[in-house]
Amino acid sequence: MAGRDSIERELEDLEEAALEGAVELLEEPLRAVERFEVNAWADLRAFTLWGERALIAGRVTLGIIAAVLLAHWLGLEMPVWAAISVLRVFQNDKNATLQRGLERIAGTVAGGVIAYAIMLDGKNAPLVYLATGLACALAVYAQAVSRYSYAFILMGFTVPLMTYHTMVSDEPVLRTILMRGAEVCLGVAIATAVDILTSKRQAAKKPPKPLFGPVDPAFIGHALTVGIAV
């Protein structure tokens, strides 16, 4: 009888320990759910058709619709890139939008030129993969230390987009590059026009960052890792 009572007590202790462990495991996820619920309700309460955020969203939406319609009218192949350019460039600040738009165009053009140079030798897969990886590694490092980081991000994105597309497509690389450039320029032009015509905000000018920061050996390794992955 005593042995049976001992076994029952051990089972009860095990059940209690298991329950405590389960509570500890669930505590953090439950807190996360609670935070999400609070934030979601706060967002819903803040929702309005006439607040500042709603007006900004409306202007961006107007720009996206205009970009898509114009891209279709001009016969561009992928109007989505014009729409994405509006979304990514619009800053609700005239100067910031203009600067970001110029960086997006510069990065796209630079990436297109590099991609065209890589593909001059034809679909030489080893050369294409090596050169594309090196270009992406350079872009990743430069965006971390340069004043014009967004331009280098676009350069690093455009190079593999163009070279890898050309590797699996019969379409001439130059046509692909020119088409994407036109789509990006259209989106940037519309975002800039909408912001200039409708924006009242203009942030105070901040001191410019250095053109290039100091050499960072650790980030060079990170950039090379990205290049190898690409």
Please explain how this structure is put together.
- The chain is mainly alpha-helical and 230 residues long.
- The protein has 2 domains: 1-47; 52-229, no CATH class.
- 80% of the residues lie in helices and 0% in strands.
- It is built from 8 helices and no strands.
- It has helices at 2-46, 52-74, 79-89, 94-118, 125-145, 149-167, 173-198, 217-229.
- Helix 2 packs antiparallel against helix 7 and helix 4 packs parallel to helix 6.
- It is extended, with a radius of gyration of 26 Å.
- The model has no long low-confidence stretch (mean pLDDT 80).
Q: How would you summarize this macromolecular structure in one to three sentences?
A:
The protein is mainly α and 230 residues long. Helix 3 crosses helix 7 and helix 4 (94-118) packs parallel to helix 6. It contains 8 helices and no strands.
Beta-strand residue fraction = under 5%
Inertia-based shape:
extended
Number of helices: 8
Biggest beta sheet summary: none
